[in-house]
């Protein structure tokens, strides 16, 4: 109903904050993934979201908190928004095969938060977004607690920052958060990707080592 109102009524031009959250699950996801196809229900949802995003021309904040993937058409709609400054993404928890999307550049982004990142659940690639996020001041990275529970250090920070490191383009962040990161120490990669001279706050919870608060330097 909410998406329909944004698409069919004249209120969308006033919307600056759009949040989609709650319980939503495509009942055909497992069936379609077995034959290498994207769920039709998920496609319909993304088409509706893209139509709403196109109408919200002054949108400044977008939060996706559904346990299903955004598709490229929605990302491209977000990339076309000149005022978008804050993006919050929840990555899916299903291991059903899904295409991995390289999130396009969002050059006016000031804050980027992602949650539930699990390499086995086909999360999207944020490296291009970070490469072009020259105005980004806040980066909050929440990882699925599954890796810590399974003692599986499968996350590599280099994967996120590899394009910044290759281009020698450091992020000038003021706030960084790392949550539930269970990984081998990669402090040098983070230092190569982030200019710490303007850093005001670093939050690290359940990070890197098996002991709480163990942050590699």
Please provide a written account of the structure:
Strand 4 (111-117), helix 5 (127-131) and strand 5 (138-143) form a beta-alpha-beta unit. It is globular, with a radius of gyration of 18 Å. It has 217 residues and is α/β, with parallel strands linked by helices. Helix content is 29%, strand content 18%. The protein has a 7-stranded parallel β-sheet with strand order 1-2-3-4-5-6-7, with no helix packed on it. The termini are far apart.
Give the tags.
single chain, about 220 residues, alpha/beta, 7-stranded parallel beta sheet, 8 helices, 7 strands, about 20% strand
Question: What's this, in brief?
Answer:
It contains 8 helices and 7 strands. It is α/β, with parallel strands linked by helices. A 7-stranded parallel beta sheet has the order 1-2-3-4-5-6-7, with no helix packed on it.
């Amino acid at each position: 109903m909410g998406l329909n109102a944004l698409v069919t009524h004249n209120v969308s031009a006033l919307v600056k904050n759009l949040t989609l959250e709650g319980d939503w699950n495509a009942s055909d996801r497992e069936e379609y993934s077995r034959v290498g196809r994207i769920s039709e229900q998920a496609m319909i949802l993304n088409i509706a979201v893209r139509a709403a995003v196109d109408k919200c021309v002054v949108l400044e904040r977008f939060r996706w908190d559904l346990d299903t993937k955004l598709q490229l058409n929605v990302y491209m709609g977000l990339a076309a928004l000149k005022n978008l400054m804050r993006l919050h993404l929840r990555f899916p928890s299903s291991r059903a095969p899904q295409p991995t999307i390289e999130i396009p550049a969002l050059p006016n982004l000031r804050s980027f938060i992602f949650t539930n990142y699990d390499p086995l659940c086909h999360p999207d690639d944020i490296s291009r977004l970070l490469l072009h996020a020259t105005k980004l001041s806040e980066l909050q990275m929440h990882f699925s607690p599954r890796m810590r529970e399974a003692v599986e250090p499968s996350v590599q920070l280099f994967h996120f920052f590899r394009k910044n490191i290759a281009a020698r383009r450091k992020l000038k962040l003021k706030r960084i958060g790392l949550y539930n990161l269970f990984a081998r120490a990669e402090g040098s990669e983070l230092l190569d990707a982030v200019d710490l001279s303007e850093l005001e706050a670093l939050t690290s919870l359940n990070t890197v080592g098996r002991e709480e608060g163990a942050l590699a330097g």
